[in-house]
Each structure stands twice: as C-alpha cells, then as structure tokens.
C-alpha cells in the first residue's frame, strides 16, 4: 500500500430484531404484496420508487438519496438454508459464520486478528454499545467497547498521572491472572486490560473533533457520531460496530418500523455528510444487516419472524444497484410462509473481505461463496 493510500475501514450497523424486508424494499408492482399485507402495507402514494418494480418506504428517504447517487447496493433474499427463526441462533450464525454448529470465534474478530496479529493497536476494533458483539469476540483479540457518549468514556478519568494509571492497570491485570487451566479468567485479564488501554487512547478523539454537521438526537446517531470522531482522530481503527433496536415488530409495526428506520437513515445521512466534510469518506463502507426478514403475511398488527431479508452496503466506493433476486411471494415458493433465501450472507462478507479488506475470505467465513460485485 502506498504512503498516500488510506487503509480501508468497515462500519457495521446491525438492525437487531429482524427487519421487515417487504416494508423496507417494497415490491409495489406485485399484487401479492398487498394481498398479504392487509394491516401493515405501505400506501401507493407513500412509496419512493427506485425503479419500475421496487420502492422504499417513505421513512427511507435518505437511503433513496444514496441510491440516486449510486452509493447504495441492495442485496436481495439474504439469509441461509434452514433458518431457525430464532433471534439468538440466527445472530450467532451471522456473527460466527457457523450455520451447522455453535461457533467459538466472531468473523470480525478473525479479521482484526489478521489486521493486527501482534496486538500493536488495541483500538483496531471499536464497538459502540453496552455489550461486546459476538462478531467481534475472539480470545486475545482486543476490542474497545464504548457503552455511552465518547466524551464520557474512559477508565478512572480523574487519575491523570501516567505512572499511577499504569500501576492501576497492572493491578487489574494481576487481579484477573488465571489459575492453571483457567481459560475464562485469562480471557478477562487480557481483553479487559487491552480495553482499558483502549479507553485511554480513545479519549483524544472528542478533543480533536470539529464539525458543522448536526446529528439527530437518537441513540444510533450518537453512536455514528462517535464512530466519526474516532475515524477522524487517525488512531488506526479499521473496524467499527454498532446496532439499533428493536426491529422485532410482532405488534404495532406501524409506526414503530418507521420510527426505527427514520432514526437509522437520518443518522446515516449525518454520518456520511460528516465523513465527506472531513474528506474521510473514500475509505469507508457501511454494512447494514438484520438477522432475518419477517413473514410475508402480516398478523393483523405486525409481522412474525421470517427467513430471507435485505442487506445494504453504502459508500463512495460502492457500485450501487440491485444484487441477487428478490424472492418470489408466490405461496408455492415460500418456505413455511417465509421468503426463501436466495443469497448466502457469507457471499456478502466474502466480497467485503476480498475486494475491500484485501484478505482471503475462505478461512474467515469458513468456505467459498459467490461474490456479488458491489464494490468498485
């Protein structure tokens, strides 16, 4: 890589709970859509047409702008065979790329380990949220987890004297020093200590941040603003992860689904504007996914767990358009009443790993998958 070339950065935004595919990318010309959606369908006069067959729900207007600019790729029918319709199991499969057994390593944890095998940068991966996402979890691979506003993030922020802080960090490490044969405590000791070091590094990001972009007042917008702050600080972070919830719209789907998507899309609009204002968008792509779609027929108030869904990739280097086939809504083509997956999610990961991160995807996704060509 040349001295002037920027390292590629991946931002993952997880739509937790199972986003309703049919009410996100609406097949408005298919009469089966309205036949199955008596309670929750999007009105014809509300749909934002993106071509002669498909349109966005009105609350996805910022995505429509990305689409019009050629910066949005829509992957259709994404999932895997024999979907269990379980939030926990499905997320586990997406996070570990293990569909036939319970995985022990997160796919992005493997990516981080390959980027920085010697752990020279403990903020290679930064996660915004109250928990460590399984996708990032690999023993002895550090992840900086930011649970709240970045400005308030840190370890014992009132202790400024470096030598005193170092002593406390060493004490923490000894406290979790494992007994022989103990793997859990060793994991706590190493990753915990690395996370505390990461907190010290990340505290400079808000201090360096200046922007004219105003972010909306929502939890996902605050997370995205934090990602922008760290990205601009030049700390060598390559993987960012955040989520927004809950898309589990069994009841009261309207207006809940629209509220959730408004928060996501307005947050993304501000985030991309911020990146571009700082000339920092050309080496960033955003992967946006949910663990499954929802049932074709509504339940009178919402939609239940389904199978195939839509996955989105946004960025200046993205080759916008449709990828894959929108699954048929015909009853004989459904699987237990759900859209039948037509694209394995690991295909999307494989493209990102190969074409964006410059890595061999096979050992990370546990196999060889066809790569949709959504990256320039």
List the helices and strands and how they pair.
Blueprint lengths: L8 E7 L9 E2 L4 H6 L11 E2 L5 E2 L4 H8 L3 E8 L7 H10 L10 H9 L9 E4 L15 E3 L15 H14 L7 H20 L1 H5 L10 H14 L6 E6 L8 H25 L6 E6 L19 E6 L6 E3 L19 E2 H12 L5 H4 L11
Parallel strand pairs: 1-8, 1-9, 5-11, 5-12, 6-7, 6-8
Antiparallel strand pairs: 2-4, 3-4, 5-10, 9-10
Helix pairs in contact: 5-6, 8-9
What does this structure look like?
- The protein has two domains: 293 residues, 3-Layer(aba) Sandwich (Alkaline Phosphatase, subunit A); 49 residues, no CATH class.
- By secondary structure, the chain is α/β, with parallel strands linked by helices.
- Helix 5 packs antiparallel against helix 6 and helix 8 packs parallel to helix 9.
Order of helices and strands: EEHEEHEHHEEHHHHEHEEEEHH
Give the count of helical stretches.
11
Shape: globular
- Beta strand count: 12
Characterize the main sheet: 9 strands, mixed
Helix content: 25-40%
- The average pLDDT is 90
By CATH reckoning, the class of the largest domain would read: Alpha Beta
What gyration radius follows from the Cα positions, in whole Å?
21 Å
- Calculate the terminal CA-CA distance, rounded to whole Å: 17 Å
The CATH architecture classification of the largest domain is 3-Layer(aba) Sandwich
Strand coverage percent: 5-15%
Low-confidence stretches: 155-160, 181-189
CATH topology term of the largest domain: Alkaline Phosphatase, subunit A
Q: Provide the domain count.
A: 2
Question: What structural keywords apply?
Answer:
single chain, Alkaline Phosphatase, subunit A, 2 domains, alpha/beta, three-stranded antiparallel β-sheet, 12 strands, 376 residues
């Amino acid at each position: 890589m040349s001295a002037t070339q920027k390292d590629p950065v991946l931002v993952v935004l997880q739509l937790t709970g199972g986003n309703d595919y049919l009410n996100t990318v609406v097949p408005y010309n298919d009469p089966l859509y309205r036949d199955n959606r008596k309670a929750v369908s999007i009105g014809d006069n509300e749909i934002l047409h993106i071509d002669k067959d498909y349109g966005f729900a009105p609350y996805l207007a910022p995505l429509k702008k990305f689409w019009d600019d050629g910066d949005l790729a829509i992957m259709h029918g994404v999932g895997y065979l024999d979907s269990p319709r379980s939030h926990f199991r499905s997320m586990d499969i997406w996070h570990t790329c293990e569909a036939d057994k319970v995985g022990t390593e997160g796919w992005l944890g493997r990516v981080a380990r390959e980027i920085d095998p010697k752990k020279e940068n403990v903020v290679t991966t930064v996660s915004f949220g109250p928990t460590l996402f399984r996708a990032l979890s690999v023993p002895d691979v550090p992840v900086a987890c930011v649970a709240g506003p970045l400005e308030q993030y840190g370890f014992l922020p009132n202790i400024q004297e470096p030598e005193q802080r170092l002593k406390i960090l060493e004490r923490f490490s000894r406290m979790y020093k494992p007994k022989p044969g103990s793997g859990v405590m060793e994991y706590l000791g190493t990753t915990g200590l690395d996370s505390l070091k990461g907190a010290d590094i990340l505290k400079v990001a808000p201090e360096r941040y200046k922007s004219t972009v105003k972010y909306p007042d929502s939890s996902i917008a605050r997370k995205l603003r934090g990602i922008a702050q760290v990205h601009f600080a030049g700390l060598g972070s390559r993987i960012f992860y955040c989520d927004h919830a809950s898309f589990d719209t069994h009841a009261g789907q309207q207006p809940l689904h629209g509220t959730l998507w408004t928060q996501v899309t307005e947050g993304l609009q501000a985030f991309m504007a911020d990146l571009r204002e700082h000339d920092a968008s050309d080496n960033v792509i955003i992967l946006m996914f949910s663990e499954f779609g929802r049932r074709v027929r509504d339940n009178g108030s919402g939609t239940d767990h389904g199978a195939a869904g839509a996955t989105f990739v946004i960025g200046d280097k993205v080759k916008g358009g449709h990828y894959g086939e929108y699954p048929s809504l015909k009853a004989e083509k459904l699987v237990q009443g759900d859209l039948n997956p037509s694209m394995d999610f690991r295909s999307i990961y494989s493209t990102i790993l190969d074409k964006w991160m410059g890595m061999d995807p096979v050992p990370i996704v546990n196999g060889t998958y066809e790569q949709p060509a959504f990256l320039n």
